Amino acid sequence: MRKEVVVTVVLLATLLAGCGGGGGGGMVAPLPQLRQMRAGDTWNYRVTLTDGMDRVVTTARIRVDPATGIDLVGNTYRLVEITFGPPANIDVIAYLSQDLGGSVWQHGDFTDGAEELVAAPYGGKVLVTKSPFVVGDRYQYNISYNTGAWESGSTEVVVRETVTVPAGTYEAYRVARRTCAGGVTALTTHWYVPEVGHIVRGVMELSVGTTTYQCTLEMTSATRGK
């Protein structure tokens, strides 16, 4: 199951900042806007991986690093570390940036000793999180990397609803996403809380051959960086 776990984690790194949300802002209050990333921001999760027969329970930590980098067209990005505990023991670094409206862009990632950067013809980055958030919003992308790999995805902000995880009960925005990368299709549902700055729950299903794998994340705690 190790290979499939790696594939799952790589796709999670791609999707980690893909944030949706929404709700009627109207004239009374502004639309929900994703909180700005800050060095040291940390989210901890309980993770369950299953292939229908075997079940693995582990942990994950997502942390915004103070380090930055430059993409293929000169844009600055921030390093975000995704660490899965035993028995997975996988580390992924996502290259992300955020604009003043809260939208998050992905510039590439570093996984399993290899780096991929969004190709220059696509501006060196791809929008993965649109903010402020509007229920019913849909957006998609189709890009290539400097390695020659292709990736496509579509996202829909479905509804605002209450969700309970070990860290507590939140009003969250449920976002559905379909991603295709490396011949693997992943269907993901994420529950985002703008003031938390990230997902509080996520469920991903991906198919490898004739087997379907599922990964569930539930937030156990979060710490704001300084």
In a nutshell, what does this entry contain?
The protein is mainly β.
Count of extended strands:
13
The termini sit apart by 38 Å
Low-confidence runs of at least 5 consecutive residues: 1-7, 17-30
Q: Largest sheet, described in full?
A: 13 strands, antiparallel
Q: What's the mean pLDDT score?
A: 84
The CATH architecture would be: Beta Barrel
Number of domains: 1
Number of helices: 1
DSSP strand content? over 45%
The helix-strand sequence is HEEEEEEEEEEEEE
CATH class: Mainly Beta
The whole-angstrom Rg is 16 Å
CATH third-tier fold name: YmcC-like fold
Structural class: mainly beta
Report helical residue fraction.
under 10%
Give the overall shape, derived from the CA principal axes.
Answer: globular
Name the descriptors.
226 residues; mainly beta; YmcC-like fold; 13-stranded antiparallel beta sheet; 13 strands; 6% helix; globular; disordered N terminus
Q: Can you characterise this structure?
A:
There is one protein chain. By secondary structure, the protein is mainly beta. It has a single domain, classed as YmcC-like fold. Helices cover 6% and strands 58% of the residues. The protein contains one helix and 13 strands, in the order αβββββββββββββ. The chain has one helix at 2-15, and strands at residues 42-50, 55-70, 76-84, 90-98, 104-111, 114-117, 126-129, 138-144, 150-165, 168-181, 184-193, 198-208, 211-223. Strands 1, 2, 3, 4, 5, 6, 7, 8, 9, 10, 11, 12 and 13 form a 13-stranded antiparallel sheet that branches. A hairpin with a 2-residue loop joins β10 and β11 (184-193). The longest helix is centred in the N-terminal third of the chain and has 14 residues, at 2-15. The chain is globular and about 40 Å long.
